[in-house]
Description:
Layout: E1 2-9, H1 13-16, H2 18-24, H3 29-48, E2 52-59, H4 67-76, E3 101-106, H5 117-124, E4 128-133, H6 139-149, E5 153-157, H7 168-178, E6 182-184, E7 203-204
Parallel strand pairs: 1-2, 1-4, 1-7, 2-3, 4-5, 5-6
Amino acid sequence: xxxxxxxxxxxxxxxxxxxxxxxxxxxxxxxxxAVTTNAARAVDLARDRGIEVVFVRFVGDVEHQGPSWRxxxxxxxxxxxxxxxxxxxxxxxxAPAPGEFVVTKKAxxxxxxxxxxxxxxxRRGIEHLVFAGVYADVCLDSxxxxxxxxxxHITLLVDCTTSLLQRDEDTVRFMAxxxxxxxxxxxxxxxxCDPLGRGDDRCSVTASN
Length: 209
């Protein structure tokens, strides 16, 4: 059995709904609504099966931004997203349950750049990360890329994510080929936990904190 965690990336209002998301997301808004709904369902399914859920959130306040980040925003005319304490930073359709781990990225894409994320996975003995959330070609990909390089197995729930700038199918193919990511959907949770394709569909349940 492979110790597995569901990693929910940036399921927050500014990325998933409302005027900020509408201004940046180039695909059909119905697609964004569908994948965020499926991601919330995946969280429920994980909890029902005793699979650990880890939430990654983003805050983009100016004081957290590096010079290059600020320059990009100024060039593109972008205001900070998911500012701490605002509606935009709140979780969308999901919320961490008591005891579930939450890591906050401060104006960065990759959760591994935030203290505590990697340490939590190692402490819990997690070997396999199942990804949901947004955006597949930005923060989710950045975190999955580092995870792969550090030795974690990767599974992508393709109906629980969507890309911001690329075509969804291109992002999925890229991750599958470059990171060896397995792909499946939220409604087949028994397939989440077999990162090596061995037919062992059981998820190992990690010990409580």
